[in-house]
Amino acid sequence: AAEEGYEKIINRLLGRNGVDSNSADRDGQTPLLWAARNGHDEIVELLLRGAGVKPDLAANDGRTPLSWAAYGGHKRTVQLLLQQDDALLSRSDADINQTDDDCRTPLSWAAEHGNDGVVKLLLKRDEVRPDAADNDGRTAFSWAAKNGHEGIVRILLE
């Protein structure tokens, strides 16, 4: 339901006793990860408001909801995962530098895929590490340069 953005179904499920909003599929992907991956902002917000939702739970490959939202260029989803808002106090902030199995950060995924709005949003955070290198020694800058994303290269050089 989260993968497809079925908000009414998610609302019903969250209202039931015994429903684990952190349950994962065989690949370790949680409802929050699926919603973030597909840019379903309203589902992400619903899940984050639910008690006990863990925004940093990674799938089997180490990818987090923040990583997938950055990859897909889902700026609003990234904002929801990072914000510290009164309505979302039931959770801790998502780790902006959490890496996957290839040591890729959300910033490197956003830079590789040309998502300049997400890159700018992530760089506003003091704790972001733009020089973090993955297992191949690539940084957000080198991913952006490799894929011809001149705007992101300029942003990262500022």
Summarize the structure.
The protein is mainly α and 158 residues long.
Q: What is the count of DSSP helices, taking H or I runs of 4+ residues?
A: 9
Strand content: under 5%
Number of domains: 1
Task: Let me know the largest β-sheet.
Answer: none
Per the CATH scheme, the topology name is Serine Threonine Protein Phosphatase 5, Tetratricopeptide repeat
CATH superfamily: Ankyrin repeat-containing domain
* Percent in helix: 40-55%
Cα shape: elongated
Low-confidence stretches: 84-91
Pfam family, one: Ank_2
Keywords: ANK repeat, Repeat
Protein name: Ankyrin
ANK repeats: 27-49, 61-93, 136-158
Give a structural overview.
This protein is an all-alpha fold. The protein has helices at residues 7-14, 31-37, 41-49, 65-72, 75-82, 106-112, 116-123, 140-146, 150-157. It has a single domain (7-157), classed as Ankyrin repeat-containing domain (Serine Threonine Protein Phosphatase 5, Tetratricopeptide repeat, Alpha Horseshoe), CATH 1.25.40. It contains nine helices and no strands. Helix 2 packs antiparallel against helix 3, helix 4 packs antiparallel against helix 5 and helix 6 (106-112) runs parallel beside helix 8 (140-146).
